[in-house]
Structure to design on (206 residues):
């Protein structure tokens, strides 16, 4: 698993690598992002927090439509790339395994989104993190989490078999059939949508 220095090194060529990527883990990447965009209603008057914002590929589209974007990442170089795309965005450098920075914990958002970042947390850590986010969501708001994810364990097994040595055993991918059950303790309602063979989106609302 890459640390923040590893992501710093990747930042300058990340967008090109994603554009060229085929198959696991980024299969259907742009469709996954488009699905998230379609779930953000009237972006022009919304505050959106992007967790693990990277170079800003997820939220740039919403920024262009007028949303106010807040981004969190532990890689200063990734943040640099994102701030080039979104000069009026607000960015925070922090490690989400330690929670969110205190400034953000004082704020409220209409949407909290994330793409291809939360697989760095175990399922238990994801649940703990989601519990913390609850305080930050405005009434009527939503959390939308896009990532490498699967509907059922058998789908994950099949994908792992197919990709063989390329499978990254250090990452923790959501399997909806068990994660949706784990989410019940958070009090969120949820819906999971599979978009590609290995990409899915989880929507959470109160
Ligand atoms: C694969 S990239 C995804 C970036 C972007 N969301 C996208 O969809 O292209 C993962 C991002 O999560 C960030 N990240 C990984 N672990 C993190 C952590 N513990 N705290 C904060 N950011 C983290 C990385 O720096 C990187 O920018």
């Amino acid at each position: 698993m890459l640390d923040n220095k590893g992501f710093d090194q990747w930042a300058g060529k990340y967008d090109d690598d994603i554009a060229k990527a085929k198959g696991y883990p980024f299969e259907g990447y742009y469709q996954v992002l488009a699905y998230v965009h379609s779930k953000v209603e009237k972006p022009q008057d919304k505050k959106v927090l992007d967790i693990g914002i990277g170079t800003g590929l997820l939220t740039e589209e919403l920024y262009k439509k007028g949303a106010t974007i807040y981004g969190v990442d532990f890689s200063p170089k990734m943040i640099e790339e994102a701030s080039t795309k979104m000069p009026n965005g607000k960015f925070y450098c922090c490690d989400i395994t330690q929670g969110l920075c205190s400034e953000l914990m004082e704020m409220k958002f209409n949407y909290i989104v994330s793409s291809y970042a939360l697989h760095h947390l175990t399922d238990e850590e994801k649940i703990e993190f989601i519990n913390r986010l609850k305080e930050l969501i405005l009434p009527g708001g939503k959390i939308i989490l896009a990532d490498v994810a699967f509907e059922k364990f058998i789908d994950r097994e099949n994908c792992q078999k197919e990709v063989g040595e390329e499978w990254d055993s250090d990452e923790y991918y959501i399997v909806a059939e068990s994660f949706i059950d784990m989410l019940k303790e958070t009090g969120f309602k949820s819906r999971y949508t599979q978009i590609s063979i290995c990409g899915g989106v989880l929507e959470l609302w109160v």
In short: The mean pLDDT is 97. The pocket of S-adenosylmethionine is lined by residues 7, 52-54, 57-58, 73-75, 78, 95-97, 115-117, 120 (CB under 6 Å). Residues 4-15+26-205 form a domain with the Rossmann fold fold (CATH 3.40.50.150). Helices lie at 4-20, 29-38, 60-64, 76-85, 102-105, 123-133, 153-163, 176-183.
